[in-house]
Design brief:
Layout: H1 3-12, E1 15-20, H2 26-38, H3 42-45, E2 59-63, H4 68-77, E3 80-85, H5 93-100, E4 107-111, H6 112-120, E5 128-133, E6 140-147, E7 151-157, E8 160-166, H7 172-187, H8 192-200
Parallel strand pairs: 1-2, 1-3, 3-4, 4-5, 5-6
Antiparallel strand pairs: 6-7, 7-8
Helix pairs in contact: 2-7
């Protein structure tokens, strides 16, 4: 991160979604949702986009688990930070300190198993979070899953159950990636029905 970008970031305080996903499945889903919602190109959404600092849509930051200080800077100085972490490594102090740096207006989106581990070791802190999974213990979860040449399931959040359709067979980890991406999009203010239509269309 160069000094010019850093100064602009401090001034503009854009929204950011930091994505840690070793399977590399979530980013394409997020780009698809945000491109359709905001009518912009993938390039404008990337974390290096100067243009994105002057707009009201989130910048997507792909994170490999390294250079935690840079990510912490983005999270602490964003006007609305979202940490989207899939399969958080256990006993990793860098991850734990980053999670605790989420300000009151930010969110952690993660899978239910990771959330349970954070609670178990006392590293969740007092933050907003959404967990994802395949049963009602999660805030966002998939039910009635049918997988064949096509895939469909009901995405449940609160009292809502919205059908999601895909024109190909999805593996379980792809469904989980979809739940995580949708959770991030929802807290960003995008309507759940609209998100389902983006994937269907």
């Amino acid at each position: 991160m160069n000094l010019f970008f850093k100064l602009l970031f401090l001034i503009k305080k854009p929204k950011v979604v930091v994505v840690f996903d070793q399977g590399l499945l979530i980013n394409p889903l997020l780009f698809n949702i945000f491109e359709n919602e905001y009518g912009i190109s993938k390039t404008s959404l990337e974390s290096t986009s100067i243009l994105g600092l002057f707009r009201n849509y989130p910048l997507i930051v792909k994170w490999d688990g390294k250079k935690t200080k840079i990510i912490s800077f983005l999270v602490r100085h964003s006007s609305f930070p979202i940490l989207l972490l899939n399969n958080i490594p256990e006993n990793n102090n860098d991850f734990y300190s980053l999670i605790k740096s989420i300000p009151r207006n930010g969110y952690l989106i993660t899978d239910l198993d990771s959330l349970k581990n954070l609670k178990r070791v006392g590293e969740l802190g007092d933050i907003n979070f959404i967990s994802t999974g395949f049963d009602e213990k999660s805030e966002v979860w998939a039910s009635d899953i049918n997988i064949g040449t096509e895939t469909n399931f009901k995405l449940r959040y609160g009292g809502d159950a919205i059908p999601f359709w895909f024109d190909r067979e999805l593996a379980e980890e792809e469904i989980m990636a979809t739940l995580l991406a949708v959770g991030s999009a929802m807290v960003s203010g995008i309507n759940l029905v609209k998100i389902s239509q983006i994937f269907k269309g």
